[in-house]
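Researcher: Quick test of sequence recovery. Tokens follow.
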């Protein structure tokens, strides 16, 4: 049995790391988020679109306490952050970005919350594909 409290899941798969690095080499574009991270025991949500060549600095949309903001954050800091109960920041295994980061940022500013923005945009994507009607 896997002890998740003592062995955190890797924050990035190899494919995600490669896509983030490729996006980072094309910095300044409105990329679709590659990965979502979240705090399983409190506040904190991050959507990442790019990774610098140094392998540490991510770019994307982040929300800690206040309004969601576009900016940079450290993969190493996310990976080593120790949370209560031995928990760690986790990667959302079910997240798939479908719109550019600017759409998530706009929806998050309107709703005040990245999670609500993801729900709204996921519903819009399903409606656009004709699902759920």
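Model:
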């Amino acid at each position: 049995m896997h002890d998740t409290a003592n062995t955190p899941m890797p924050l990035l798969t190899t494919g995600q790391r490669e896509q983030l690095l490729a996006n980072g080499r094309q910095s300044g574009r409105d990329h679709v988020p590659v990965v979502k991270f979240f705090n399983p025991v409190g506040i904190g949500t991050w959507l990442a679109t790019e990774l610098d060549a140094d392998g540490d600095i991510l770019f994307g949309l982040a929300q800690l306490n206040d309004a969601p903001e576009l900016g940079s954050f450290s993969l190493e800091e996310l990976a080593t952050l120790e949370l209560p109960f031995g928990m760690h920041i986790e990667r959302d295994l079910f997240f798939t970005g479908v719109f550019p980061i600017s759409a998530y940022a706009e929806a998050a500013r309107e709703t005040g919350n990245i999670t609500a923005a993801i729900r709204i945009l996921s519903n819009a994507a399903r409606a656009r594909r004709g699902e759920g009607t």
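The helical segments are 14-25, 75-80, 101-111, 114-129.
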